[in-house]
């Protein structure tokens, strides 16, 4: 066993905090401060601090499991488990064709794994049916970013720019709980005289830090942004020169905004006209300003238009592609950025290429050594794929997601998963979804394998192997290598992450997310490199390197759009958008709005964090957050069980009564399975462009539950 300190990064969220790992003689691993990484400078949240607990063999999977004749999952050899998967997937393909085999990935996978999974689906299985959980995450912001700017990189600038800006509007982000070490950048913003505005139906820990907190009705951020743009125009605050020189499409966007009078917007959102005016003043007066969105405005059936409206506000005021100004999306998962770039998305090839673009197909097919015509076309989006299980899709290979807990309308999705002919799951723990599988494969975790992730800033990072995995565990790359061989593809699925990365570099070369100038060696030396980073020094953008000094290598691109946007003509595009209602408005039968989200001590479906004692002590279970007025009407006291009922189902959890939430809205975190599962209730109404489900607003009624 190595006994030295290994600098690496956290397994959980997109901040990808730096940490040091030291193996102890008793087999445990110590997580300690690593101060040289600029994003967190040593700080870690409770999840990162306790992340090594999930490496312990008493909470994780240590052997492949297969379902025996009695229907029980029992330990099996790797050969038996892999043979069964190859047979299960192969049988479906032979009987129903390649598109009857589905693949579902995750934004927690390293770039190497996400890339290999996409290649595995298209080259080995020949299926178009692959998508991943990132569809449920930042897909609306990605779609809006591509429309407006021509490229989707969550933040077009490093986090360290935030404290130097004049004003930041945080739309539907509770980063004090979801990315705690990043709060520092916003505290420094205020110390430097900048203003923080938070938009959230709840007065969250983040909202408590704000100079101004707006609490709109869930699902109305689109109208809110339009109302602000209306005032910008009415008050003569449009940056006409910028609009003329750097944008296109202003007239239509302007007309759409003019139809959204402040009084009308007040009626829709519940945010008062004086508050709208104050927001415009604070946003427009300083030299520079930013808008950052997270899942609040994005996880809506109109998330793409909503983000588009916030981008319009930035463009009209000249706050994009200028120093210390811009629009950014706070991506969520550990590799939420890289995971959306290299081909595990239904319509995508590596390097953020489009699967239906003949030039992209030809480039990638050449790297893969296959005929471009053999590559399938685009497949279904995540919810549509899960909804087709058991009907069009008969077998599924699932890696790094737990949809039984995290998918919308989860009872239906659970039933769809149970109806599959064959399910194989690769995971580190026996998640609620893995428990339904025919075969479960135990895989290595972050500390046990090397690989790259790309954090929310677009910074590509090297996670290093710090310890030897326990006996009997293999990596996702080894799994795909073995399955490919069993399904007749002997070559092209290496098990060494660096070898995969070298191929990814070539596959991404020339694409929007160009990694071709990045190597493991550079990543180890430079503490991360921002994409795009093409291999040729000739491509260095103006100003990035002192004049006359030709760089040996491209320095990477911390800041995008300063000279031009990534559109063919270099101009950003306004989108003409108008308010529309949420897919399911409250009515007499379901009079209350439900919104969902997170708490600081649990991560996602909880598969990992619910196995950590310290985190469970801090966040032991689900709850229903509601206003005292709603609680009184229900006759519920603090801690009483409350039933929340939607058209999709019923969930029960203890009441948490607080006046920090709007009286027309209840909130549930989604980290738990069982009776308190929030996703039993949520509405799978999809955004027409991003195919994002409406996690953040549906109609429910509340019922008192008599305690036993
Ligand atoms: N502790 C913890 N941290 C995490 C995660 C986790 O599970 N736990 N997950 C990671 C991932 S993958 C992600 S995507 C990020 C998510 O990070 P965030 O987006 O910060 O997380 P959420 O709690 O889903 O939503 C943020 C806020 O949106 C508000 N909101 C609800 N409805 C609306 C609305 O209609 N409009 C507006 N403006 N706001 C609304 C909620 O009240 C909530 O406070 O967190 C990452 N970090
Ligand atoms: N109601 C509601 N639902 C939501 C959301 C919401 O705000 N509200 N947010 C949505 C969002 S933003 C997201 S990102 C999704 C996330 O929801 P999920 O996709 O369920 O995410 P996780 O719980 O992180 O699941 C990851 C699984 O992969 C395993 N794993 C971790 N690392 C690896 C690895 O390297 N290889 C393999 N094979 N497995 C690994 C973990 O143990 C875990 O079981 O939930 C979505 N669902
Ligand atoms: S904020 Fe995110 S990356 Fe940082 S320690 Fe916590 S979970 Fe890990
Ligand atoms: Mo996410």
UniProtKB/TrEMBL annotation:
Task: Name the source's superkingdom.
Answer: Bacteria
Q: Does the keyword Nucleus apply?
A: no
Enumerate the PROSITE patterns for this protein.
4FE4S_MOW_BIS_MGD (PS51669)
* One GO CC term, this protein: membrane
Which cofactor names does the annotation list? Answer: Mo-bis(molybdopterin guanine dinucleotide); [4Fe-4S] cluster
* Occurrences of domain 4Fe-4S Mo/W bis-MGD-type (ranges): 3-59
- Please provide, alphabetically and separated by semicolons, the GO molecular function terms listed in this UniProt record: 4 iron, 4 sulfur cluster binding; metal ion binding; molybdopterin cofactor binding; NADH dehydrogenase activity
Keywords from the UniProt entry: 4Fe-4S, Iron, Iron-sulfur, Metal-binding, Molybdenum, Oxidoreductase
Q: Which GO terms describe its biological process?
A: respiratory electron transport chain
Cite the CDD domains for this sequence: MopB_CT_Fdh-Nap-like
Protein's name according to its UniProt entry: Nitrite reductase
Q: Which organism is it from?
A: Streptomyces qaidamensis
């Amino acid at each position: 066993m190595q006994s030295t300190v290994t600098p690496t990064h956290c397994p959980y969220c997109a901040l990808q905090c730096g940490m040091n790992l030291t193996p102890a003689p008793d087999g445990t691993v110590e997580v300690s401060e690593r101060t040289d990484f600029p994003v967190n400078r040593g700080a870690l949240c409770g999840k990162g601090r306790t992340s090594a607990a999930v490496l312990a063999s008493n909470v994780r999977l240590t052997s492949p499991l297969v379902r025996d004749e009695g229907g029980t999952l029992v330990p099996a050899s790797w050969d038996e488990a892999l043979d069964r998967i190859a047979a299960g997937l192969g049988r479906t393909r032979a009987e129903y064709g390649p598109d009857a085999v589905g693949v579902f990935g995750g934004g927690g996978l390293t770039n190497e794994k996400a890339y290999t999974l996409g290649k595995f689906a298209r080259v080995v299985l020949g299926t178009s049916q692959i998508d991943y959980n990132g569809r449920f995450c930042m897909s609306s912001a990605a779609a809006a970013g591509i429309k407006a700017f021509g490229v989707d990189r969550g933040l077009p600038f490093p986090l360290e720019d935030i404290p130097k800006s004049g004003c930041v509007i945080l739309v539907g982000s509770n980063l004090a709980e979801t990315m705690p070490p990043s709060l520092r950048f916003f505290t420094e913003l205020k110390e430097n005289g900048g203003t923080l505005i938070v938009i959230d139906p709840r007065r969250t820990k983040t909202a408590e830090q704000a100079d101004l907190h707006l609490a709109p009705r869930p699902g109305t951020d689109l109208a809110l942004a339009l109302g602000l743009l209306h005032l910008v125009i009415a008050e003569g605050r449009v940056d006409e020169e910028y609009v003329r020189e750097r944008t296109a499409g202003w007239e239509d966007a302007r007309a759409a905004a003019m139809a959204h009078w402040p009084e009308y917007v007040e009626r829709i959102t519940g945010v008062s006209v004086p508050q709208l005016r104050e927001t415009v003043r604070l946003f427009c007066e300083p030299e520079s300003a930013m808008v950052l969105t997270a899942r609040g405005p994005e996880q809506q059936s109109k998330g793409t238009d909503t983000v588009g409206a916030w981008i319009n506000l930035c463009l009209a005021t000249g706050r994009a592609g200028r120093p210390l100004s811009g629009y950014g999306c706070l991506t969520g998962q550990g590799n939420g950025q890289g995971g959306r770039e290299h081909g595990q998305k239904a319509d995508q090839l590596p390097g953020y290429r489009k699967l239906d673009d003949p030039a992209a197909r030809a480039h990638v097919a050449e790297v893969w050594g296959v005929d471009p015509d053999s590559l399938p076309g685009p497949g279904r989006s995540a919810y549509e794929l899960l909804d087709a299980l058991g009907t069009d899709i008969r077998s599924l290979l699932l890696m790094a997601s737990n949809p039984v807990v995290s998918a919308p309308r989860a009872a239906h999705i659970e039933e769809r998963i149970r109806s599959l002919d064959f399910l194989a799951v690769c995971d580190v723990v026996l998640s609620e979804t893995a428990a339904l599988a025919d075969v479960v494969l135990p895989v290595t975790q972050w500390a046990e394998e090397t690989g790259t992730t790309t954090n929310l800033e677009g910074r590509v990072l090297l996670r290093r192997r710090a310890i030897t995995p326990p006996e009997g565990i293999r990596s996702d790359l080894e799994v795909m290598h073995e399955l490919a061989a069993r399904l007749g593809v002997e070559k092209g699925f290496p098990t060494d992450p660096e070898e995969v990365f070298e191929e990814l570099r070539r596959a991404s070369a020339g694409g929007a997310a160009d990694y071709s100038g990045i190597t493991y060696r550079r990543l180890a030396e430079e503490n991360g490199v921002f994409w795009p980073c093409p291999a040729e020094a000739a491509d260095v953008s103006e100003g990035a390197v002192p004049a006359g000094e030709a760089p040996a290598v491209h320095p990477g691109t911390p800041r995008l759009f300063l000279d031009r946007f990534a559109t063919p003509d270099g101009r950003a595009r306004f989108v003409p958008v108008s308010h529309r209602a949420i897919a399911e408005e409250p009515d007499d039968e379901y009079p209350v709005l439900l919104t969902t989200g997170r708490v600081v001590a649990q991560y996602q479906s909880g598969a990992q964090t619910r196995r950590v004692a310290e985190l469970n002590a801090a966040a032991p279970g689900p709850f229903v957050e509601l206003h005292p007025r709603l609680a009184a009407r229900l006759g519920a006291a603090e801690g009483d069980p409350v039933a929340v009922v939607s058209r999709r189902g019923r969930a029960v959890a203890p009441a948490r009564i607080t006046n920090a939430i709007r009286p027309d809205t209840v909130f549930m975190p989604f980290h738990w399975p069982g009776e308190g599962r929030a996703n039993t209730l949520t509405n799978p109404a999809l955004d027409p462009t991003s195919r994002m489900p409406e996690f953040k607003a549906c109609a429910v009624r509340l019922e008192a539950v008599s305690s036993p």
